[in-house]
Amino acid sequence: MIVLSIMNNKGGVSKTVTSINAAAYLSKKNRVLLIDFDAQANSTGATIESSVSHVGEWLTGEKSFQEVVVKYQNQFDVLPSGRPLQTYAKAIGSEDDYQFILKERIEEDKLNERYDCIVIDNAPSLTTLAYTTFIAATHILIPSTAEEFSIAGIPNILQTVANVQKRYNPGLKVVGIFFSKYHSSYRSRIDNDMVAGTKEAYGDLVLNTTIRNNVAIKEAMAYRTPVFAYAPNSAGAEDYEALMEEVITKL
Ligand SMILES: Nc1ncnc2c1ncn2[C@@H]1O[C@H](COP(=O)(O)OP(=O)(O)OP(=O)(O)O)[C@@H](O)[C@H]1O
Ligand SMILES: [Mg+2]
């Protein structure tokens, strides 16, 4: 089973959009679970809208997996989030060996028998919950925008991956870094320069695909529909298909 954690500690860099569209794309051929690990609950809002239960209740064992999981349009399953997740995350983080909690719950509930892929949407910081995904994940995918502050977070993530590989999860792999909300017009030379600089610094870790700034992506999220269904001929659908095909070659 692939466990793909979508991570950047910078906000607004397309983690949620990528999580939803990755789940949708992978679900064409695989059984997929999307975990919303952000108390902002954007992945939840953009798929099943809302839920009375949240993933924190499953992590702590208050509720069973079946009680929390929700189906999204026969495409994939969602472990939803909600505001209370923030309080749960604090409590979880204060327990000994908390970092293993996600991995243990996945194993106890034998999610590898139910799913081929788990996609995890994270909050915009290296929180307690995000850290548990480094232990449970097989792969990390790093979206960024071509902005200094988004790129500046990357060394931090890679350092955390290196520490986790050494101590807990030697098989953890970084799929790559990719750019989203990309403006390639002549007016945005800065975007091109930022991408070139990142390629110089990280070499092959930078994926070939970039996701253009495209209004269909924004609209699709608002209408709770993956971009492939909302606007199949849009630049957004084309780019996310290319990204996922590239990601699949690296899994
Ligand atoms: N390629 C794109 N083109 C146009 N709009 C985009 C694109 N990618 C993301 N957006 C929009 O940018 C906003 C932020 O995207 P998203 O919510 O996916 O980021 P995030 O990294 O999950 O943010 P947060 O850190 O707050 O969780 C959303 O309104 C989304 O619709
Ligand atoms: Mg988000």
From TrEMBL:
Pfam families, A to Z: AAA_31
Domain AAA, residue spans: 3-174
InterPro entries, A to Z: AAA_dom, DNA_Partitioning_ATPase, P-loop_NTPase
Entry superkingdom: Bacteria
Protein's recorded name: ParA family protein
Origin species: Rufibacter hautae
